[in-house]
Amino acid sequence: MATLGFGIDIGGSGIKGAAVDLETGLLATERFKVLTPQPSTPPAVAGAVAKVVGHFGWQGPLGCTFPAVVQEGVARTAANVDHSWIGTNIETVMGAATGLPVTAVNDADAAGVAETKWGAAQGIRGLVIMVTLGTGIGTSLFYNGVLIPNSELGHIELDGGDYEPKASGAAREREALSWEKWAKRLQRYFSALEFLLRPSLFVVGGGVSRRSEKFLPLLVLDAPIVPARFQNEAGIAGVAFMAAEAAGAATGRPVPPPERGARTGAPRPA
Length: 270
Ligand code: BGC
Description:
The chain is 31% helix and 23% strand. By secondary structure, the protein is of the alpha/beta class. It folds into two domains: 4-105 and 235-246, Nucleotidyltransferase, domain 5 (2-Layer Sandwich), CATH 3.30.420.40; 110-231, Nucleotidyltransferase, domain 5. The strands form four sheets. Strands 3-2-1-4-7 form a five-stranded mixed beta sheet, sandwiched between helices. A five-stranded mixed beta sheet has the order 10-9-8-13-14, with helices on one face. It is globular, with a radius of gyration of 18 Å. Bound molecules: beta-D-glucopyranose (BGC).
């Protein structure tokens, strides 16, 4: 039987969770999603997370991605969530709401972990830059497969300002940009990253990576640029793995399977 983990992806607009097959990174259940409460304060978001966990009756280590800098479980920034998160220990708040041991990490870092372990960046040497294009722009860096956390390259300043509001997935929708117009901004962005960091590979995730054939072929870079294998589910898969690892390290034992099993379903194709 597959070893399961559980991941929740906390975003500015939705909070999604699913059980994950830790051998393959594929979701072992359908995703369950609730809207992110507004304002997205710690108690409100914790309540929503508890609802997602309760939907599955999950018991075991819980991984939570968070759309901000997260150090030792504490949110240090809050670009697309309520500012009262800054300085809050996400693991403590979510742990109290769910009764589970929680590991919280930056959302793009979690997505990159899944791609490095099972996906588009598996076995790549040198520097890999994962970029998630959604409400914000998230980035994660891996050198020879090792995560360098909290890189925040979505906020590099280009043409006189933070480039996230110009090139994010949300910017494309908000300004109703054609694929070509959006790709011009992406070109500016990825060229800047390439000039500064010279990666071996770019991996592009976020919801829009589902439509990567519309914009990735328009980009001209020295490094290959490929869509994330797990698309928008990479964060859930990566953080489920990170939580299971943390729980194993804490107890010194292999991670136990969930006591009350998560709902089972056919694994979704990658
Ligand atoms: C945040 C990052 C996050 C990204 C994607 C950015 O605005 O600063 O921490 O990874 O959005 O959610």
